[in-house]
Amino acid sequence: MLRRAMTLIVSAVLLVGFTLAALAVPVPYVVASPGLALNTLGELDGEQVIQIEGHPVHEHDGALSMVTVQYSGGPDARMNLFTALSAWLSPSQAVLPEEAVFPPDTSAEEVTQTQAAQMDNSQDAAVAAALNELGIAYETAATVHTVSQGHPAEGVLRPGDVIVEVDGEPVADKDEVVAAVKDRSPGDPVRLLVERDGGKEEVEVGTVESGAGEPVIGVTVETDMTFPFEVEISVGRVGGPSAGMMFALGIMDRLDPEGLTGGHRIAGTGTIDPQGNVGGVSGVQQKMVSAKREGAEYFLVAAESCDQTFESAVTGQIEVVRVETLGEAVDALEAIRAGDTDALPRC
C-alpha cells in the first residue's frame, strides 16, 4: 500500500511538473489588449496633438479620440502558453497567430518601421481629406518613387521626376497617370513631360504587358501633396494607419470656428484616404474598451469593421456609429450636436 501511494504521489508530482513546464513553453501567438486613447483635440506631453501654423485655429470642448491596440508577444518576446490561455479567457483581449502581426521573415524592427511609415501616410491623407471636406484647395504632383529594373522606364525616368503631362494631357496625381498609361495597348509608347532638376524634359517610354494584361512602363508613382499651411500631428510612438479618420476630424475641428463635437466625447477608428473614404481596421473590440475607459459616448467605426463590434465586451454600453466616408462622419457629429441621434447609422 505504501509503495502504491508513493507511486501515485510521484506520478502526480511529475504530471504537475510536466503541465507547468508545458505552460511555460514559449508559443507563437500575440495578445491584443486595449491600448492608448488619445484626444486629438487635446495635448500630449504638454503640446497640442494637432498643431496648425499659417491658418486661424480654434479650441473647443469635447473629444475626438483615436484609440489603439497594444500587442504583447512576437518573435523577439514570445509569451508562454499560460499567458496565452489567460488572455484567451479575457473578454477584452484577443489571442492572434504571430503571423497576423509579424509576417514571416519580418523582424519586429521592420514591423515598427512599416507602422511608422503607415502613420506618416495616414496623417498626410487626413490633412488632404479634411481640406477636401472643407473646400480648401491644395497642390498635388505625380512623383516617380521607384523605377523597376528590366522595364522600359529604366534609364529614362528617375526617382524624384514629377510627371506633368502624359501624351500632351496634364496630370496632377498618381491616379491620372495610371489611367493615362492604361489608355493604350501593351507595346505602345507613351510620351511624358517631366520636371527634373528645375527644368522640364519630354521623354518617350515604351510599355510592356503586366501580369494583369495591362500596359505598364515600370515605375511606381505616388501623389505628393503641398498644403497651403502647416499641419503637424504628434502622437508619440504610435504607428499604423487606423487613426486616419479621427485625425481628419480633429483637423477639421481645429479649423472650424464652431467645432464638430458640441462638447460630446467621441472616439473612433478607421483609415482615411485623400478622397475621404474610411477603411476598415482590426482590433475594434479592444479599441472600444479603450474608448469606454476614456469616457466616450459615441464610437465611430468604418462600415467594413462593423462585424467586430458585436464581439466587443462593451457593446451596448457605447453608441456605435457606422461610417463609410469622412462626410458621413461629419453628418453623424452634426446629428449628435443637434441631439437628433435616432437616425444615426449603426452597426
Automatic annotation (TrEMBL):
SMART domains: PDZ (SM00228). InterPro entries: Lon_proteolytic, PDZ, PDZ_sf, Ribosomal_Su5_D2-typ_SF, Ribsml_uS5_D2-typ_fold_subgr. Signal peptide: none annotated. Pfam families: Lon_C, PDZ_2. Residues 116-198 form the PDZ domain. This is PDZ domain-containing protein. It comes from Thermobifida alba (Thermomonospora alba).
